[in-house]
Design a protein that fits this description.
Layout lengths: L3 E5 L12 H11 L4 E5 L1 H4 L2 H4 L9 E4 L2 E4 L1 H11 L8 H31 L6 H23 L11 H10 L12 H11 L2 H22 L1
Parallel strand pairs: 1-2
Antiparallel strand pairs: 1-3, 3-4
Helix pairs in contact: 1-4, 1-7, 1-9, 5-6, 5-7, 7-8
Length: about 220
């Protein structure tokens, strides 16, 4: 049986490919692994059946035989380790790809998520305007460091890897903030990744779920 991925029945990302099942879909497409999806509502995410898979009541979860995983980074790493295409064969290069996977989620993602959440939930707070420049600068600091490291290279370390997949997933969250505009090499890096056929398929699959949910609500 193919692995089963849980995803939002009605995603809050409005079909932009930002919900965290996107990176798992993308990884599965990169390695050519078919999969099934189980769509869940917000209420179902807090129900015992889902909490048994994900104790924090979020998505995605990933079931492959007797194995059940949560956390998208861990799931992507599992896929990359089990299938050729997302990790180099050379042990040192493989370790560096995994390093970049962790860097994406542990170093780049926190300030980007903090900036994003402030714009979503603190916009009317009295401290919002005073705090925003600080949050933006934290993101710019990380982007500058990443830009300097990437330079004119196509990918972070040799061929496209799971590290690039997770890094681009994180950088895509900055689309509406326009902060990538100051770093042409990073903008081009994201564009290269989005042009990959596996990304295109994963994005279309996730967007189809959003469009189906939107259509059902309008009927």
């Amino acid at each position: 049986m193919p692995p089963i991925l849980t995803a939002f029945r009605q995603s809050p990302d409005r079909g932009r490919g930002l919900a965290r099942d996107m990176q798992v879909r993308w990884a599965l497409e990169e390695v050519g692994q078919p999969y099934d999806t189980r769509l869940v509502t917000f209420d179902e995410m807090k129900a015992p059946a889902h909490l048994a898979l994900h104790p924090f009541g979020q998505i995605p979860t990933y079931e492959d035989g007797d194995l059940a995983l949560f956390e998208s980074g861990a799931i992507v790493l599992r896929i990359a380790e089990r299938h050729a295409g997302l990790l180099p064969a050379d042990p040192d290069a493989r370790s560096r790809a995994i390093m970049w996977l962790f860097a994406a989620q542990a170093t780049l993602q926190p300030p980007i998520i903090e900036l994003e959440m402030a714009s979503l939930v603190e916009r009317d707070a009295p401290w919002f305007e005073a705090r925003q420049p600080m949050l933006e600068q934290r993101v710019r600091d990380r982007l500058g460091q990443l830009s300097a490291r990437l330079g004119e290279a196509e990918w972070l370390d040799g061929d496209f890897s799971a590290g690039d997949l997770l890094m681009v997933t994180v950088l895509r969250r900055l689309g509406s903030a326009r902060l990538l505009d100051a770093y042409p090499n990073l903008a081009a890096y994201v564009a290269r990744a989005e042009a990959r056929p596996a990304f295109t398929r994963a994005f279309a699959d996730q967007r189809a779920v959003f469009e189906a949910a939107t259509k059902s609500l309008s009927l």
